[in-house]
Amino acid sequence: MDNASKKNILTEGKVLPGIISFTMPIFFGMLFQQFYNMVDTAIVGKYLGINALAGVGSTGSLMFLVIGTVNGICSGFAIPVAQSFGAKNMDMLKRFVAGATLLAAILSAVLTVVTVLLCNNMLVAMDTTAESYEYAYEYLVIIFAGIPFTFLYNLTSGFLRSIGDSKSPLYFLFISSALNIALDFLFIVGFKMSADGAGLATVISQAVSGLACLVYMSRKYEVLKLRRKDFKVNGFILFRLLSVGIPMGIQYGITAVGTIVIQAAVNSFGTITVAGVVTSGKISSLVACPLEALGAAMATFAGQNIGAGNLDRVNRGLWQATFLGFGVSAVMFGVVWFFGRYIALLFMSADEMEAMNYAMQCIRINAAFYCLLTIVLTFRYTIQGMGYSTLAIFAGILEMIARCLIGIFLPAVMGFISICIASPVAWLAADLFLIPAYYMCLKKAKRHYSKAFHTESL
């Protein structure tokens, strides 16, 4: 292991300070990404008008489904790399990196072709309005054409996090986001392009950050510098990567289904209610960033320590991270309760009082149960980091079922409050599965992982 890699290891030292140190760059990256998304949306709405804003905005669920799947797959591919790093088996690590690179190339090509060809069909199936269809199509088809670059950035940043470097991906995210905003202004304001300018700006910035990340990791870390011999991967390598990566990708698709059902229920209440719920979701995306980042950090922490055979450290790390998350949840509830209306003004006018009231009711109920969300995130990501992504996917299925049942049956009985409780009930359903599932995984790991990841050859 080279000197640059040694300082990033999460298998040594105090548990909680190590987790916090690794989490902070991920948190700032997520926060910055939320800020960028706000600015990007504002540029489209201000300079292209309401139809363009509706068109680009209407692609959100499809982008979450497809791009989220890509992110999940790449995160899954990074887990065996983290486990090998924890086991100090650099030969295996390189072969996992090479195998993930080959699989990502194949999957990105397939997904690009399929999504570009089906883009029209997907927009029609979503009943996209005639006024916004053109904007939605020209934006989405460019985003889908750039899927290989999405794979590139998420895969390379995943490799860096797997060896304990969560800071470098943050720097490349800053560069990508700043470039994206600058290109938005250049293409839309300067060149007078339409929604395709916004899509092109996103793809170009993603390509630049992905290529920069690739060059950086190859030069900075010897363990991530591949040679021809490393690409001689076998069936075990490919199966291991797919068995972790594909379930994590599917997780996003399952979540998207439940979200779409709830959105349909929200739509039945009318435009003002929709505006309130959308605003609540945006506030939640901001204030829940620390919890999301903590969960993401646990995947790498668990992966490295499972590889090193530190099962007690995994367990201590999980519970310390979870209790930390409880504390953060209490703080975030206070932020929402006292400052939620001020945050909402970032997304709506102060005179939209009815929509504001809907937003506050929804976000306050959700924030009151962030402790349940904390358990979902820390336990699910830990299970995935241990290599049991297929098992963790059942938590997503339970979340989807809970949201679907609430979205279909309760609005007519309970009214708007049913929308407010959908996520807390879904989190509770997932928690009831994840806690016992984790201990089952821990028991399995004691029998299998320590021996498997200290094997010198495959």
Descriptors:
globular, 18 helices, disordered C terminus, 458 residues
Describe this structure in words.
There is one protein chain. This protein has two domains: 25-233, no CATH class; 254-458, no CATH class. Helices cover 85% and strands 0% of the residues. The protein has 18 helices and no strands. Helix 11 crosses helix 14. The two termini are 19 Å apart. Mean pLDDT is 87; it is low at 452-458.
Q: How many strand segments?
A: 0
Oligomer: single chain
Q: Please give the alpha-carbon distance between the first and last residues.
A: 19 Å
What's the main sheet like? none
* Order of H and E elements: HHHHHHHHHHHHHHHHHH
Spans of at least 5 consecutive residues with low confidence: 452-458
Number of helices: 18
Radius of gyration, CA atoms, in whole angstroms: 22 Å
Relative strand content: under 5%
Structural class: mainly alpha
Helical residues, percent: over 70%
Overall mean pLDDT: 87
* CA-based shape: globular
Integer tally of domains: 2
Element layout with pairings:
Elements: H1 3-6, H2 15-48, H3 50-57, H4 60-86, H5 90-125, H6 130-145, H7 147-162, H8 167-190, H9 195-220, H10 235-267, H11 271-287, H12 289-307, H13 311-344, H14 353-368, H15 370-385, H16 389-409, H17 411-414, H18 416-452
Helix pairs in contact: 2-3, 2-8, 2-12, 2-13, 3-6, 4-5, 4-7, 4-10, 4-12, 5-6, 5-7, 5-10, 6-9, 7-9, 8-9, 10-16, 11-13, 11-14, 12-13, 12-15, 13-14, 13-15, 14-18, 15-16, 15-18, 16-18
